[in-house]
Amino acid sequence: MSELKEALSKEYYKEPAPIPQSDSPFASMMERFRFAADILDLDEGVFQYLSTPEKVVMVAIPVTMDDGRIEVFEGYRVIHNSILGPSKGGIRYAEDVHLDEVKALAAWMTWKCACVNVPFGGAKGGVRVDPKKLSMPELERLTRRYTTNMFEVFGPDRDIPAPDMNTNEQIMAWIMDAYSMKSHKNDTAVVTGKPIILGGSKGRREATGRGVITTTLAALNKLKISPSDASIVVQGFGNVGSVSAQLIYEQGAKIIAISDVSGGYYNKNGIDIPKAIHYSQTNGYSLEGFDGAEKISNKDLLELECDVLIPAAKEDQIDKDNAGKIRAKIIAEGANGPVTANADKILEENGIMVIPDILANAGGVTVSYFEWVQDRHGYFWTEERVNRRLNRMMREAFDNLFTVSEKYSITLRQAAYVYSIDRVATTLKLRGIYA
């Protein structure tokens, strides 16, 4: 159980924690949403509809602690939109989870699913708790009670949770089991990100990083740059960053810099990525002391001259203050919200192509969709088939956005919002508003 508890301290698919301030990821998203709505001449009523969550659920989660006392935790689930299909989104356990954050991330999921043509709407959940302070039995009781309280919200045809910050396969397994006990049948499709033995999908752990690289390769092709001639900088060396680095390294690219919380590591001749991954894994998932490159600051890493910069760490890494110093030809947003809205114009004026987060890192939700499909059919695919279908969907999504960007003479980010909002709004008009 110690290995499991250690795993809980690691982030599964990290997403930003927006707060309602002018430079927050949520504020950035809303600014981009308004821009796309203006291009589409979106009806004000439709704009308000798509800006407002369909359902907001708050629950009290009483848990009997190991010492016999009762603690009550606060849980949330926000369904932003279900026009395209059942809502989809992760559940995070964190002390600073708040309702505004969950609302923001739920909206983000709506646009992300629409962007890659996955037939899901957007949702997000959270529990205000520090899971590292709970024992495994306490964590299990918390998860099962949260699931029971959300029984009328969750469902394979209604709302499908997944892992997020500080949640993992084991927690998804508890959710699946608690829901199944309540529904009196094995509902494996109620949640994704499960262990493979319980209906999880092969290829899911690498899916987000694989999507980042599939879209990066498509962008390099548009700029007529061969992967074998490309220089790459990767900020962040967690799941997304390390997988992205490994996959583009296998394409013959030269990764000249990587980083994690210990700092940046630069080698103009290229870093041996398999060596770096092995070092990190055997060094407590830290690059501290890595001798395959010289130590640099995170600020210097972002400003290195390169063909591709992959920010796969935290939000708000590139803003109006440093955007003019970025010397990459392409930015592929492995993290959510690494570029603030006030930096967009600067990057555009400098001719930098930005592959937006709602496309670049949508590989995770795409393979979550594959998992749901496999569970519904009771037939599971090989990893090769999962990867092949993921690559195809991500390439098609990139091509769709590139076409929209050329049609309106806008950036790929603006095109992503235009395409996604138009898809949801068109579906809403066709379905109509039930009264």
Brief summary:
The protein is 45% helix and 18% strand.
Order of strands, main sheet, comes to 9-8-7-6-10-11-12
Q: What's the helical proportion of residues? A: 40-55%
Characterize the biggest β-sheet: 7 strands, mixed
- How many individual β-strands? 12
How much strand? 15-25%
* Unreliable residue runs: 1-22
Total helical elements: 15
Structural class: alpha/beta
**CATH superfamily membership of the domain at 2-18 and 53-198, which one?**
Leucine Dehydrogenase, chain A, domain 1
Any idea what the CATH architecture of the domain at 2-18 and 53-198 is? 3-Layer(aba) Sandwich
Give the N-to-C terminal Cα separation.
52 Å
CATH overall fold name of the domain at 2-18 and 53-198: Rossmann fold
Basic shape:
globular
Tell me the Rg in angstroms.
Answer: 21 Å
Mean pLDDT: 92
Q: What's the CATH first level of the domain at 2-18 and 53-198? A: Alpha Beta
SSE topology string: HHHEEEHEHEHHEHEEHEHEEHEHHHH
Structure, described:
The protein has 435 residues and is α/β, with parallel strands linked by helices. Among the domains are: 2-18 and 53-198, Leucine Dehydrogenase, chain A, domain 1 (Rossmann fold); 205-339, NAD(P)-binding Rossmann-like Domain (Rossmann fold). Helices cover 45% and strands 18% of the residues. The protein is built from 15 helices and 12 strands. The strands form 2 sheets. A 7-stranded mixed sheet has the order 9-8-7-6-10-11-12. The protein has a 5-stranded mixed sheet with strand order 1-2-4-3-5. Helix 4 crosses helix 15 (412-431), helix 7 (204-222) packs across helix 13 and helix 13 (363-377) crosses helix 14. The longest helix has 26 residues, at 383-408. It is globular. The model is unreliable at 1-22 (pLDDT under 50).
